[in-house]
């Protein structure tokens, strides 16, 4: 049962071969047995089993919601009423959310059973999941490796079969990179597809919620639940309701796949390149053709992102001051001293680094030189993507230049860590959808993911392509030995 996909679990529940309580019990036992992964910040067995029992009672009373009783986990960035919602930070270690985010509301309305809150880099800032106040998450494929960040807890939980699916967020690659490092499938949809209401903000113009699961089909099923217009989020897309499973069985014949030459240049590890080449060959067998394309401003994505994101973070995190909720310093002398001590104690080093960077680039005399220039580069990068989508239907690329690195390997060099995001940041700057699909393993036995990038609202086609690939390969079925 632990290796079952969402589709298989739905069938089991519908046929009466299992119950929501039995499922939740099995997964909760497995979570308890693998606490060494540190994938969860909060697990409330009693609350989860009560939710599962309610699902079973509803099904017995004739409720036919397809996902009724299916378990999942939420990244600890989505507010959930009555649950501790820490965002991986000491600042919110004592915060019990008084309301639920739109994502949690939608999952609850579908009858999904929450098994817990997954670990994450503090306020979603990080590429390795080593920046959490609750300690680093371990990669289930190799306990000496990072799982990727910031949705590393969700990725590790799905890979280790502690949950069949999980929510994540992606500001610069935080769904795709941990999905790649842990050998699962993860999708970040078009900006605005999933409501940010109740999702603790890092960089508001870049943050986007998405789905993580074993297969593309499962991601489509979860995205059907998560996506939709929300009037409480001013950036929510007003578009017709979408069925993200509709293209799963579409033929790939005639589709054009662009390979951006800048994404396959120096710096890409040979074993990652080999795995992606093999995947591309499979897509050609399925009927797709390959187009050589160029994204000339790719190198400017990192500097532009690390100006814009910290600028927005410095503003968003100003609300954490010890006055209304969250951590407050115990000893202080006056209001300003309380602010300073609270924020000094409550935030970790990486968060402080980005707040200081953001405050600097927004300060008088530097706004035009840094922030304004970064926004112009952002437009150039978005234009690059629109130019190549005139030549091809989707883009393929690596997710990361290498497989997962060792725990602690890059913590002393933030710039080296930032460079690992070179293939994912441009997508967020442009607001495009993208996903990671497992395509093999590196020479060190750690998973390799391939990125599929689509044009705006192109999720269904991307998921269909990934699904067709997963019908002829078995990389997505591999599970770590724990």
Short précis:
This protein is 37% helix and 12% strand. Helix 7 runs antiparallel to helix 15 (459-472).
Key phrases:
15 helices, 482 residues, 3-stranded mixed beta sheet, single chain, 8-stranded mixed beta sheet, alpha/beta, 12% strand, 37% helix
Number of beta strands: 11
Total count of helical runs of at least 4 residues:
15
How do the strands line up in the largest sheet?
4-6-5-10-11-9-7-8
In what range is the share of β-strand residues?
5-15%
Helix content: 25-40%
Radius of gyration: 21 Å
Average per-residue pLDDT, rounded, comes to 96
Give the biggest beta sheet. 8 strands, mixed
Spans where pLDDT lies below 50 across 5 or more residues: none
Q: Can you tell me the overall shape? A: globular
Protein structure class: alpha/beta
What does this structure look like?
With 482 residues, the chain is α/β, with parallel strands linked by helices. 37% of the residues lie in helices and 12% in strands. The chain has helices at 6-15, 20-33, 45-60, 102-109, 152-159, 176-182, 216-226, 270-285, 301-316, 335-346, 349-361, 367-388, 414-419, 425-430, 459-472, and strands spanning 40-42, 71-75, 113-118, 165-169, 185-188, 209-213, 256-260, 289-293, 394-398, 434-441, 447-454. The strands form 2 sheets. Strands 4-6-5-10-11-9-7-8 form an 8-stranded mixed β-sheet. It has a 3-stranded mixed β-sheet with strand order 1-3-2. Helix 7 packs antiparallel against helix 15, helix 9 (301-316) crosses helix 11 (349-361) and helix 9 (301-316) crosses helix 12. The radius of gyration is 21 Å and the shape is globular. The two termini are 16 Å apart.
């Amino acid at each position: 049962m632990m290796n079952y996909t969402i589709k298989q679990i739905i069938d089991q529940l519908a046929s009466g071969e299992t119950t929501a309580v039995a499922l939740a019990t099995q997964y909760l036992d497995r979570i308890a047995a693998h606490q060494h992964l540190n994938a969860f910040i909060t697990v409330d067995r009693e609350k989860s089993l009560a939710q599962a029992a309610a699902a079973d009672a509803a099904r017995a009373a004739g409720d036919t919601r397809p996902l009724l009783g299916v378990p999942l986990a939420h990244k600890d960035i989505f507010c959930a009423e009555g649950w501790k919602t820490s965002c991986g930070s000491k600042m919110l270690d004592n915060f019990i959310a008084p309301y639920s985010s739109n994502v949690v509301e939608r999952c609850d309305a579908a009858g999904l059973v929450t098994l817990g809150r997954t670990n994450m880099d503090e306020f979603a800032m990080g590429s390795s999941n080593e920046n959490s106040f609750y300690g680093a998450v371990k990669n289930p494929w190799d306990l000496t490796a990072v799982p990727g960040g910031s949705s590393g807890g969700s990725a590790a939980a799905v890979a280790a079969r502690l949950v069949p699916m999980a929510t994540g967020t992606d500001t610069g690659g935080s769904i795709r990179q941990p999905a790649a490092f842990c050998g699962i499938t993860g999708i970040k949809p078009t900006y605005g597809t999933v409501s940010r209401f109740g999702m603790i903000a890092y960089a508001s113009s870049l943050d986007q919620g998405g789905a993580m699961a074993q297969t593309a089909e499962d991601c489509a099923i979860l995205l059907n639940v998560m996506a939709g217009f929300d009037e409480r989020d001013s950036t929510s897309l007003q578009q017709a309701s979408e069925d993200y499973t509709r293209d799963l069985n579409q033929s790939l014949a005639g589709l054009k796949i662009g390979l951006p030459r800048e994404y396959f240049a120096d710096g890409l590890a040979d074993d990652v390149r080999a795995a992606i080449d093999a995947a591309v060959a499979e897509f050609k067998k399925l009927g797709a053709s390959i187009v050589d394309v160029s994204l000339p401003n790719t190198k400017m994505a990192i500097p532009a992102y690390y100006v814009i994101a910290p600028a927005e973070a410095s503003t968003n995190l100003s609300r954490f001051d010890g006055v209304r909720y969250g951590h407050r310093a115990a000893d202080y002398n006056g209001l300003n001293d309380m602010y300073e001590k609270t924020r000094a104690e409550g935030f970790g080093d990486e968060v402080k680094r980005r707040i200081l960077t953001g405050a600097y680039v927004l300060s008088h005399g530097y706004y035009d030189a840094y922030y304004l220039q970064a926004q112009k580069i952002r437009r150039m990068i978005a234009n690059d993507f629109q130019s190549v989508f005139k030549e091809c239907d989707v883009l393929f690329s690596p997710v990361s230049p290498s497989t997962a690195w060792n725990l602690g390997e890059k913590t002393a060099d933030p710039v080296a860590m930032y460079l690992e995001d070179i293939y994912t940041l441009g997508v967020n700057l442009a607001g495009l959808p993208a996903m990671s699909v497992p395509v093999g393993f590196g020479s060190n036995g750690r998973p390799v993911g391939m990125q599929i990038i689509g044009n705006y609202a192109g999720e269904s086609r991307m998921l269909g392509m990934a699904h067709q690939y997963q019908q002829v390969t078995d990389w997505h079925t591999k599970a770590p030995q724990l």
